[in-house]
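Per-residue structure
===
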Amino acid sequence: MVIAITSLWCGGGHFTAMADFVRSKDDRFKTFLELPPGIPSHDTFRRVFVLPDPQAFLGCFLRWTQALRAAIPGELVALDGKTLRRSLAAGQSPIHLVSAWAAQNRLVLGRDKVDEKSNEITAGPELLRALELAG
């Protein structure tokens, strides 16, 4: 997961890019990760991301971002909706996401997929409830 998240932060948007990324930075990753079976393949990254329950993963991600976040009184949290590029498959609607951004912390606190029959106006409050923000 550390490799996958680092790859995503650096622009690797798919499993093959994650495998290529770790191969290109192998020496750096070996300074803080042990990889006894070797560098994970793109198939391994795919299996890792297909197995977890999306809602359970979201809950873990939200707890992690909240732990990273410094408490700043009155911090602004902006909501932003985006449509993912190239997410339109034949016969399907494109994927829409809503994100919560902590301005002073410069951190995405959470992101949620908008239901196909909904919009970011209805998805935003759900994301805010999940974040349990106060003030």
Q: What stands out?
A: Residues 11 and 131 are 25 Å apart (CA to CA). The chain has a mean pLDDT of 81. The two ends are 33 Å apart (CA to CA).
